Amino acid sequence: MNNTLDKPTADEIAEMADRNEDVSRYFTNKGTARYPVKRINVDFSAPMLTELDEMARELNISRQAVIKSFLRQALDQHRLARS
Fold first, then answer.
1. Containing domain of residue 5, as a range?
2. Which of 16, 49, 62, 71 is positioned for an S-S bond with 21, CB 3.0–4.6 A?
3. pLDDT per residue over 2-35, tens digit each?
4. Residue 63: pLDDT band by 50, 70, 90 thresholds?
């Protein structure tokens, strides 16, 4: 076990679980669920990429973050419009 306040690493906990040891004490159930990420390819026109890059610079975030943020807003608006 490591020396960080005698707390095992995630790999050590996994090894304990593999040995059928009870590891429940290491989990608080206070975290949030994380959904798996699936990578996809999306094609954009050059002018649209220019606009996305300008927005990314303006907001000081990555192009990917701009795309995700705008897509999330559009999906939320669509869901609200349907309800």
1. 1-31
2. 16
3. 555 678 898 999 999 999 999 988 888 888 888 8
4. very high
Average pLDDT over residues 67-81: 96
Q: Mark 9-22 as b/e (b = at least 16 C-beta within 10 Å).
A: eeeebeeeeeeeee
Asked if 52 contacts 44 with a C-beta cutoff of 8 angstroms, the reply is yes
Same-domain status, 14 and 52 = no
Q: Are 49 and 73 within one domain?
A: yes
What CA–CA distance (Å, rounded) separates 64 from 21? 41
Helix (H) or strand (E) holding 59: helix 46-59
**What's the number of domains the chain is made of?**
2
